Predict the structure of DNA/RNA non-specific endonuclease domain-containing protein.
Amino acid sequence: MRVRTVKNLGERDGGKTEPRFEPGTSQMRGVAMKFADDFIMRGHYSPKTDFVYGNQQRATFHYVNVGPQWQTFNAGNWDSVETSVRTYADKNKLDLDVYTGTYGILTFPDVNGVETELYLYVDKNNNKAIPVPKLFWKAVYDPNSQAGIVIVGINNPYLSGPQGDYVLCNDVCSNISWLRWDQKNITKGYLYCCDVNDFRATVSTLPEFTLGDQYIAETSDYYLARGHNAAKADFVYGSQHRATFHFVNVAPQWQTFNGGNWETVESSVRAYADKKKLDLDVYTGTYGILTFPDVNGVETELYLYVDNNNNKAIPVPKLYWKAVYDPKSQAGVVFVGINNPYLSNPQGDYLICNDVSSEISWLEWEPKDIKRGYSYCCIVDDFRSTVKTLPQFTECSKCQYFCVEHTTECFLLLQQNTSLEQTLQRYEPADSALFLNPRVEMAIYFSFFRQQIQIFEYSRIQ
């Protein structure tokens, strides 16, 4: 709002003539005069008092966190909403997710009665900036109960009665008992409440609560951990233990699965080898890329890193598998675990073989517990028909490894001093090679498939 001041009117015409203002300036009389008793201030989206630490509180004063808001509304019902939400969270010991935003551009009638959008800045070329919002809204969501409400406030203290596009939904404030406000006081900011889905039908920018809160929790074991292929406990010496913590030996794994059925499989295999006095060959790997639905319900592959050009790295595996083979009896089995604790009904490409877990009596797990990792067992040949990177056990059990520098036992194909780079160059995509590292008694199995290298670990439990 621009105000032009005319000085010394009395000296100019003896005070007899009423001044005439140039068109385009705001007139402090008539229709505009009733707007003079209020002002627009910085309305904070995230209020300072919602935070604890000084750096957080200072961050709320950046302009990215404010929108033009009438002071009567800011200090009136909007302040009451912010206070009520904090009080409700404290009283009920809840961690609430709160989203705040604006919708629409406020309009006031000009001198001709034409509704005109309000901006804090208009240059000589009529380029506009910093619009005054028509509505402020605050969405409050409880992840535990998955209950939410949206509170909407009208940023117009001069409105005679809310109507038209000031009202986005049916008012459900009668269902909210913990709000302390003067709801129908237009000067303090007329407010109403919306059902979340009703509100989102108009304001599509509101995030999907259930998506984020279903897959993200700050204080639980629903997070991605480093899932080790070759387990530390499979080895004896410190150097071997430390080697298992290199990133070449890990892949993203949900902690509920990592500390659940997957840990049970690892422990059971070691216990079985010890009880039967067996030297077992164990191969561990992953298969597929986990997908979750995006906000539009489209299944999307998960990666831990995506750059600005949409280049992706570190995929989250869909399945983990562990092949256990006894060279003496030439008997083997493959354990498969689903790396998705949110899956309601495992089907499709989550199931890659007929389950034969009923034939494995020494494994104590909860295979149908989805949170702990829905798991099943495969006959080796059945598994290999899908996961073709699994090596032939008969070769590996005879230690017929490809040679790497410092290896003293070499049985196949390559000369004693062939380097790793030279070995890689000998193979076309879809070939595979197994490399033994005698320092840690582990082998890394590389599979070249569609120009991508899949890695899993080989270890011998003795």
